[in-house]
Amino acid sequence: MASFKWNLKALPFGNQSVIYHLDGSFFRENEPTRIFAANVDVDFSISRKSEQDYELAMDCHGTLNIECDRCLEEMVHVVDVRYELSVRQEGSDYDDSNEHVLVVPSSWRELDVEPLVRDTVLLTIPIMHHHDDGECNSEMMDALGRHSVTHASENEEDNNDGEAAIDPRWEALQKLKKNN
User: What sections of the chain are H helices per DSSP?
Assistant: First the structure.
């Protein structure tokens, strides 16, 4: 695999590109993730615009095998994303506070793009990820249904007036509220 470290000072003006192929080991190397397998191609290009200005772009396409939040079985997540970033080499401070502009110290010789690639791909995974309806493991979904919380009205006892019983703590708070 090509190196993820780009020697900024040695880059010629114009466009350079590298294609990376990411597999499951890429996501398990630095920190643990719940990615079982991966098959993602990243077409990464960098364009040197001046002595200190660079434009980065990456197109990521492929699949990740991740865990379904509903049934805990493996599912396929499709990755299809483009990310662009301007890099400016100036001063002595690193500043990534702007979403589309990265400022790196002028003393840096290399830029490690591995975290950019990793984060770009991982951020395609939605917070809640699950199979489409009907595709989850039916045994797990049945077990989940048996153990899930039922409607509150089924679990509450009715008082003599047919109204649901009020938790005594809430009842005491209601009395305090009425007295004020």
Answer: 24-28, 114-122, 138-147, 152-155, 168-179
- DSSP letter at 9 equals T
Topology (CATH) of 5-122: Beta-Lactamase (3.30.450)
User: pLDDT in tens for each of the 180 residues of the chain?
Assistant: 578 898 888 888 989 899 999 998 898 887 778 899 999 999 999 999 998 899 999 999 999 999 998 888 889 999 999 999 999 998 899 988 988 899 999 888 888 999 999 999 999 999 988 888 777 777 877 777 777 665 344 444 445 555 566 777 777 777 777 776
User: What residue spans define the domains of the chain?
Assistant: 5-122
Q: Name the token pair of 36.
A: 């079982």
pTM of the full structure:
0.73
Helix then strand then coil, in percent of the chain rounded to 5, is 20, 40, 40
Nearest to 107 by CA among 122, 88, 92, 97: 92
Parallel/antiparallel/unpaired status of strands 74-89 and 53-67: antiparallel
Of 92, 180, 79, the closest CA to residue 129 belongs to 79
Task: Please answer whether residues 52 and 89 qualify as being in contact, where contact means their C-beta atoms are separated by less than 8 angstroms.
Answer: yes
CA angle 61, 121, 132 (to 5 degrees): 75
